[in-house]
Write a structure and sequence with these properties.
about 425 residues, five-stranded parallel β-sheet, single chain, globular, 3 domains, 9 strands, alpha/beta, two-stranded antiparallel ribbon
């Protein structure tokens, strides 16, 4: 019998819920850093080779470790002497409603405004972005009410309204649709002022980098799905030229379906390619044969969080859980937490190691959380299962495919390689 206590299991459980990591965190596993095609190191070179400003895109599904890798990107750029601001857009955008280029840029300016204020203090500029926006409305005679703009560098009311009040957000979008060019100019003027301020604090040739995280989390639900997905497509395709900010090197995270829809978007942005943080390759491309290297990486990730994991389950059981989640870190951690809470107790003593049936019960629980699947979605999943690719025949199919990505039914493995979530393969083939 294992010597582990219930409190040990509780600690392991908590370690599986730790949010995005810094590169020096003891839980961080540098598997990408040791790969020959590290997208983060390539982004560093892209930014360091660029001149005045640049735009780069980083794709990946929620839970792929993208936010953690953005923190490594920040660390590497700071080592080169650059000033880097990392902004999490889920603090500024309502992720479940359509986004337009106007409110998207306003949200980015609010995020940049707050990031610079946090780094350099409250009085970093004469006026905050909200006050400038109020002046912009006045000068262009745009009638818009509903936000209590303030003039003391406090942008909280505008930030709160854009994130929490869909009605105000829609009214703002409507008011600005005839003023897109001026809104873009106003955002670029503000970003240039911010760059000038930072350079005054450092030196006049300092590179300033803005990392925009969580854009890939914009997703619709129910009837709202199609308008939301269409708005993301419109944002990065039709308005790609407006994503440049004066003298800023900007990296946007984007949803995994965007490279499928617009594989040549990098050319439109005059950048290189859309780089991606893919799931860890625990299978070879046939989707059946386990990849020993990927299994080893996943085992190391578990070992960093709980060195005594073999008291709970065997290596064979752990590999079973790894393969069941296809290298998706978020689902893998969910499955391990399910296993932990299924461990029977005798008093306060866990009965370990677990049985094989417990692993299967946990897998079934996770699978049931993904069901039922509509038949039209099943058809898509069968095609992806057979071809390992996602091919749109018509643009109208975007919303359906995007929803399959959002629900993690489709997994992205990089290099135009996709597959169905392993727990669903039995469902779609029976």
């Amino acid at each position: 019998m294992s010597s582990l206590s219930d409190s040990d299991l509780q600690m392991f459980f908590k370690h599986l819920k730790k949010p995005s990591l810094e590169p020096d965190d003891p839980f961080y596993e540098a598997y990408l850093e040791n790969s020959p095609n590290d997208p983060i190191k390539e982004l560093v070179r892209d930014i360091s080779y660029a001149d005045d400003d640049s735009v780069n895109l980083l794709s990946g599904q929620r839970g792929s470790g993208k936010s953690t890798e953005l923190r490594r990107l920040r660390r590497l750029l700071e080592k080169k002497g650059y000033v880097v601001f990392l902004c999490d857009m889920q603090d500024y955008i309502n992720l479940y409603f359509p986004v337009e280029i106007t409110d998207f840029l306003i949200s980015i300016m609010l995020a940049l405004n707050e990031a610079i204020r946090d780094k350099y203090g409250k009085d970093f500029a004469k006026r905050g972005y909200a006050e400038r926006l109020k002046d912009f409305f006045t000068k262009t005679k745009i009638r818009f009410e509903g936000i209590d703009f303030t003039g003391d560098n406090d942008d909280a009311p505008l930030k709160f309204a854009l994130k929490q009040d869909p009605t105000i957000k829609q009214r703002l979008q409507t008011a600005l649709r005839g003023h897109i060019t001026k809104t873009v100019q106003q955002a670029r003027l503000f970003s240039q002022d911010m760059v000038n301020f930072v350079r005054q604090q450092t030196d006049e040739n300092k590179k300033i980098v803005l990392l925009i995280d969580s854009v890939e989390q914009i997703r619709g639900v129910g009837k709202n799905a199609k308008p939301v997905h269409d708005s993301v497509n419109n944002l990065f395709n039709y308005h790609s030229d407006k994503l440049y900010l004066e003298n800023l090197h900007t990296v946007y995270t984007v949803p995994p379906y965007l490279p499928v829809l617009a594989p040549n978007l990098g050319r439109s942005l005059d950048s290189t390619v859309i780089r991606s943080i893919a799931n860890i390759h625990v299978f070879h491309r046939d989707g059946k044969t386990p990849d020993p290297m990927g299994l080893s990486i996943m085992e190391n990730i578990v070992h960093r969080r709980f060195a005594n994991w073999q008291h709970i389950f065997s290596r064979k059981q752990l590999q079973n859980a790894i393969l069941a989640t296809g290298g998706d870190l978020r689902d893998f951690f969910r499955l391990l937490r399910l296993l932990i809470v299924k461990v029977p107790l005798e008093g306060d003593k866990p009965l370990l190691p677990i049985k094989d049936k417990t692993v299967e019960d946990a897998k079934n629980d996770l699978r049931r959380s993904m069901l039922p699947i509509p038949e039209e979605d099943m058809d898509w999943l069968r095609r992806i299962f057979e071809t390992k690719q996602v091919k749109l025949q018509f643009i109208e199919e975007l919303s359906q495919v995007a929803r399959l990505f959002d629900n993690f039914y489709i997994q992205s493995h990089g290099n135009n390689w996709f597959d169905v979530h392993p727990l669903l393969k039995k469902v779609i083939t029976t």
